[in-house]
Specification:
The chain has about 450 residues and is an alpha/beta fold. The chain has 2 domains: about 250 residues, Aldehyde Dehydrogenase, Chain A, domain 1; about 180 residues, Aldehyde Dehydrogenase, Chain A, domain 2, CATH 3.40.309. The chain is about 40% helix and about 20% strand. It has 14 helices and 20 strands. The strands form 5 sheets. It has a 7-stranded mixed sheet, sandwiched between helices. Strands 7-6-5-8-9-19 form a 6-stranded mixed sheet, with helices on both faces. Strands 3-4-20 form a 3-stranded antiparallel sheet, with no helix packed on it. Strand 1 and strand 2 form a beta hairpin. Helix 2 packs antiparallel against helix 4, helix 3 packs antiparallel against helix 6 and helix 9 packs across helix 10. The longest helix has 20 residues. The radius of gyration is 23 Å and the shape is globular. The chain binds nicotinamide-adenine-dinucleotide. The site of nicotinamide-adenine-dinucleotide (NAD) has 30 residues, from helix 7 and helix 8.
């Protein structure tokens, strides 16, 4: 395990505005010792928190939601500068954090166990909090993904230590301040910026951290899972994706083409749910591409602070270089949208027609505004092609045939599907992946229970 003096760890990250490459500020990294101190504070705070009446915990989360509501514009502006998210999207994200807090503020008073019929007495189950939960967050949706972990964990009576991604810690740090201002006990919800290999690893190895919620790449998720195995530590993994947008010949082709760009280019394609493989029934393949071209060229790529911007820059230079490596002379560009020139990590929306189903642009998660379009022949082939991936996170199906919609929905191995739409994540419905897209589910009515252990107690009536 790396230590605070490990030569490979730098003491701080300099944050760069991805839209103009100006320096925003420098963020000090928390050390291993700093993590251990924070976890010790969290252990004490969790005991006080769990000892409060359920209604007091519910009201505390409601006060937190109210403060987030008043800070929506501030949080959104921070995300615009730190992550390059378009302002309209960033406002939605801050509002979503408020909504998640409000939704799970009902949970403390509904952590309901069971009474099970047995001989000789009564049998009860209790949903006991785990203690301290470690939440590790990626850079693509810094606020919302943080909230999916920390809110239901707090609602179930736990304390939370949260590590934001190195590039995008600012909104999470502000949320921790708002939590304190709203009256959460000191130490209950702490945000610890730092390196994954230091802070994230220490969450995994510290024995007082009883569960890890990890969202990020599949490669790092596997390491986290292996680390958790050492202590039989609970783990939820939300990992990569390469989701299919399956378009049948009988669909509303105009609507399918008009909506396909936002399904993959939203957040500049830096979305684990991006429908980055468009699969089109062969008989309408050419017509679909004709309709897709003006839709892609119409995506408004521009300064994230502008109200009309639909797509901003990529998050960082290193990520820009990774995405660029998928679009070379060999990669069969069909057409591209536009992007500003000059400073900033701008990448135009790009449509590729790969030479084969095994091209790396088809199989690997690019995590940028790049989509592949492939033809298929009939329903069985569509399902086979959609499932030809190590991932299974999201996806869409376009057809007017209800029976086919049901058959294909059941046939595709993925966690979150929409038919004749590209629904985004809802806090009230479960979210998570099949195969190497993850393990466990977040959000929805059962999320708080995932942060508890079931305790069974038998009480003799003798
Ligand atoms: P990443 O795996 O590089 O980093 C994710 C987080 O893990 C960061 O906070 C990082 O510092 C930390 N980390 C890095 N090494 C670690 C280690 N050894 N131990 C513990 N923590 C460590 O991912 P990223 O580049 O920040 O995010 C992009 C990836 O996240 C994509 O693959 C995307 O699909 C995935 N993602 C998945 C979901 C989902 O819900 N399934 C949502 C968003 C993003």
């Amino acid at each position: 395990m790396p230590t605070a003096t490990d030569a490979s760890t730098s003491p701080a990250t300099t944050l760069i505005n991805p839209a103009d490459e100006t320096v925003l500020r420098t963020i000090e990294h928390v050390t291993v010792e700093g993590v251990d101190d924070a976890v010790a504070r969290a252990v004490a705070a969790q005991k006080r928190w769990a000892g409060l009446a359920p209604v007091e915990r519910a009201n505390a989360l409601r006060r937190f939601a109210t403060l987030v509501e008043t800070a929506i514009e501030e949080l959104a502006r921070i995300e615009v500068a730190n992550s390059g998210h378009p302002i309209t999207q960033a406002r939605w994200e801050a509002g979503h954090v408020r909504d998640v807090l409000n939704y799970y503020s009902a949970a403390p008073e509904r952590m309901i166990g069971k009474q099970i019929p047995v001989a000789g007495g009564i049998d009860l189950t209790f949903l006991e909090p785990l203690g301290v939960v470690g939440v590790i967050v990626p850079w693509n949706f810094p606020m919302t993904i943080a909230a999916w972990g920390f809110v239901p964990a707090l609602a179930a009576g736990n304390a939370v230590v949260l590590k934001p991604a190195e590039w995008t810690p600012l909104t999470a740090l502000r949320l921790a301040e708002l939590g304190l201002e709203s009256g959460l006990p000191e130490g209950l919800f702490q945000v610890l910026p730092g390196r994954g290999s230091v802070v994230g690893t220490r969450f995994v190895t510290n024995e007082s951290v009883r569960k890890i919620v990890f969202t990020g790449s599949t490669a790092v998720g596997k390491q986290v899972m292996a680390g958790c195995a050492d202590q039989v530590k609970a783990v939820t993994l939300e990992l990569g994706g390469k989701s299919a947008n399956v378009i049948f010949a009988d669909s509303d082709l105009e609507k399918a083409a008009a909506t396909a760009p936002s399904a993959v280019f939203e957040n500049a394609g830096q979305d684990c749910c991006a429908r980055s493989r468009i699969l089109v029934e062969r008989s309408v393949y050419d017509r679909f591409l004709e309709l897709l071209e003006p839709a892609v060229k119409g995506v408004k790529v521009g300064l994230p602070g502008d109200e009309s911007t639909e797509m901003g820059p990529l998050v960082a230079k290193a990520h820009f270089e990774k995405v660029s490596s998928y679009v070379d002379d060999e990669s069969r560009v069909a057409f591209r949208g536009s992007a500003p020139g000059g400073a900033g990590y701008w990448f135009a929306p790009t449509v590729l027609l790969p030479a084969s189903r095994t091209d790396r642009t088809v199989t690997e998660e690019i995590f940028g505004p790049v989509v592949t379009v492939l033809p298929f022949d009939g329903e069985a082939d569509a399902i086979t092609l959609a499932n030809d991936s190590i991932y299974g996170l999201s996806g869409s199906i376009w057809t007017r045939d209800l029976g086919r919609a049901i058959r294909v929905s059941r046939g595709i191995e993925t966690g979150n599907l929409s038919v004749n739409s590209h629904s985004s994540v809802r806090y009230s419905t479960p979210f998570g992946g099949f195969k190497q897209s993850g393990l466990g589910r977040e959000l929805g009515p059962d999320a708080a229970a995932a942060f508890t252990e079931t305790k069974n107690v038998f009480i003799s009536h003798d």
